[in-house]
Design a protein that fits this description.
Rossmann fold, 33% strand, Glucose Oxidase, domain 1, 10-stranded mixed β-sheet, single chain, binds glutamine, alpha/beta, 23% helix
Amino acid sequence: MKARLILENGAVFEGEAFGYLDTQVGEVVFNTGMTGYQEVLTDPSYCGQIIVMTYPLIGNYGINLDDFESNSIKAKGLIVREKCAFSSNFRSEFELEQFLKHNKVLGIEGIDTRALTRMIRSRGTMRGIITTEDLSETEISSYIEDYSSKGVVYAVCTKTIERYNGLTTSSDEQHKKVALIDYGAKKNILRELLKRNCDVTIYPAWTSADEILKDQPDLVFLSNGPGNPEDLAPEIEEIKKLIGVKPIVGICLGHQLIALASEGETEKLKFGHRGCNHPVKDIGKNRVYITSQNHGYCVTKLPKDFEVTHVNVNDGSVEGMRHTLLPVFSVQFHPEASPGPRESDYLFDEFIAYAE
Ligand SMILES: NC(=O)CC[C@H](N)C(=O)O
């Protein structure tokens, strides 16, 4: 069946539908990873977005039971050049198409993803509709105008407090108590903390600072998550109450929220950074790491008393910052990888070293 992507600038790309037949509106973004489609689709930070994979063949190693970053697809749609119908990998449990169908997500194949990506790069990120229906002009513009990314964090974060014990049980290993505030946390953040013997309590995004402090954590960890950080005014107020009281670290959205809670500023990037091949320089180590990224916003004004620890080698944007006096440290990229290179996972040791 035919399916179309209609962008807000009027461009139309036609391809073949696969997965679940539907109409959805979202922000159309591209990801340059050659692999990692399972992690990308289930990463809650993609909530509200339609993903274009620039690698031309997607689905060739299927979907397995271990690589989920949350328990369902959070993206609104998937656009590929060619979908692989029969996967070939010893870990594959089902096909990409089945996975999309089961999660009620529309995929479109046969799209010139190179032309589409070039258009997004030159025009900037745009809203778009994916559909198998014949929509009228009025329907198209009302879909696009009604689209908003507000509330996405509340849609994806945990609704109840969850507690996990660190993996090592030996009594001489001291377990650090980590309060992970979930704005749409990827599972690999939890896995990395548990692997390092931390006992982790996951709190819904709206949890008050008082409630978190009552549990006496050794470290507060602000997760990644979807949407515009500026939409989270109440959460920013709670973070303000934690800064200087408990050590705080953050990844991606968490990093942006620390900036906003300390009177820094964030802005939307023209087309974002999404992929597994973004070079980031750790200024202290004078080394470049290839990192996994997925963000549309970045910190443009550093808060007072903060210094830049990491910088993006491609465009010079801020990739990490640290308070010069208080235990506060955060990065814009994803040291938990999943998907992508794991070479910056040393940052989890640095994060945990901040614990009291
Ligand atoms: N992965 C993330 O946490 C993304 C943060 C934020 N939603 C952005 O797009 O910039």
